[in-house]
């Protein structure tokens, strides 16, 4: 069995060490060098307010973590969505690495609780600021990369953010689903999506509209909503899942096979005798 010598906290703060160990248990990773984690969880205001000059804060580690994050996400979605073109993969990546999504991951971990802040920044709500939480989440990823390498960093990210990657892009209220869906339909079907109202339910003051989305002869998905606009947006979000389905994969394979047969026929024309 292999053992490693674990570097202790530089400042020998027992309470801080307990907090860092608690965070390690939470994220499922034990640092060989606990100082890396402490740096990732240290806001500049803490060092400035306490006039500490021999310790780093999270910003350099965030810079590294941002690049590690991008590589992990790109590798994962490249494998996870084999039928998406470059534009589709870019849409997923930009959503996953956005401040909103990273801050959401951080909040699920209650990350703000573990960050060292100056009293002023803490008083003005630093522990709840999305920009800080997203940055520190990236810094922690960078710290794990430095301490344990790419595979450990990847395991950490997918453990805590996999659903944000895989469940793409259903029920994400701020996304332009209709625009994304139109791009896919034009790319794969050379046609725009068509939205059909198939049912209207409920009294006039509380109406719900059921929408189906079609592209040529393909039904992509559907949803209902309180207005036609809301229902269309929800239906578009659900319809993007079609491009991840086995049905769509079969469609691509049939098209590819048909294309090969047409090329073969053109290469070897049949000559009929008169």
Structural class: mainly alpha
CATH architecture of the largest domain: Orthogonal Bundle
State the shape. Answer: elongated
Annotation field: number of helices: 12
Spatial strand order of the main sheet:
1-2-3
How many beta-strand elements? Answer: 3
Helix content: 55-70%
The topology string of helices and strands comes to HHHHHHHHHHEEEHH
Q: Your description of this structure?
A:
By secondary structure, this protein is mostly helical. The protein folds into 2 domains: 14-166, Ribonuclease iii, N-terminal Endonuclease Domain, Chain A (Orthogonal Bundle), CATH 1.10.1520.10; 177-265, Double Stranded RNA Binding Domain (2-Layer Sandwich), CATH 3.30.160.20. It has helices spanning 14-27, 34-40, 44-49, 59-80, 86-96, 99-108, 119-123, 130-148, 150-166, 177-189, 228-239, 246-267, and strands spanning 194-201, 208-215, 218-225. The protein has a 3-stranded antiparallel beta sheet with strand order 1-2-3, covered by helices on one side. A hairpin with a 6-residue loop joins strand 1 and strand 2. It starts with 13 loop residues before the first helix and ends in a 7-residue tail after the last helix.
Key phrases:
274 residues, mainly alpha, Ribonuclease iii, N-terminal Endonuclease Domain, Chain A, Double Stranded RNA Binding Domain, 12 helices, 58% helix, elongated
């Amino acid at each position: 069995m292999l053992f490693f010598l674990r570097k202790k906290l530089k400042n020998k703060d027992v309470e801080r060490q307990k907090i860092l160990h608690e965070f390690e248990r939470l994220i499922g990773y034990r640092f060989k060098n606990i100082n890396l984690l402490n740096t990732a969880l240290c806001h500049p205001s803490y060092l400035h307010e306490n006039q500490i000059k021999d310790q780093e804060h999270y910003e350099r580690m965030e810079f590294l973590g941002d690049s590690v994050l991008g590589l992990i996400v790109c590798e994962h979605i490249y494998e996870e969505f084999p039928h998406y073109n470059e534009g589709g993969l870019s849409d997923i990546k930009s959503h996953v690495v956005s401040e909103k999504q990273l801050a959401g991951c951080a909040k699920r971990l209650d990350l703000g609780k573990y960050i060292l802040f100056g009293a002023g920044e803490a008083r003005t709500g630093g522990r709840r600021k999305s920009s800080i939480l997203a940055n520190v989440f990236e810094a922690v990823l960078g710290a794990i990369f430095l301490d344990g390498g790419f595979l450990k960093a990847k395991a950490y990210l997918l453990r805590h953010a996999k659903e944000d990657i895989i469940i793409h892009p259903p029920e994400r209220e701020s996304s332009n689903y209709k625009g994304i869906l139109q791009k896919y339909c034009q790319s794969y079907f050379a046609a725009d999506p068509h939205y059909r109202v198939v049912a209207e339910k409920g009294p006039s003051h509380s109406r719900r509209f059921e929408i189906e989305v079609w592209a040529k002869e393909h039904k992509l998905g559907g949803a209902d909503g309180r207005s036609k606009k809301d229902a269309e947006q929800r239906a578009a979000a659900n319809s993007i899942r079609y491009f991840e389905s086995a049905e769509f994969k079969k469609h691509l394979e049939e098209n590819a096979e048909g294309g090969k047969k047409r090329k073969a026929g053109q290469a070897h024309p049949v000559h009929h005798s008169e």
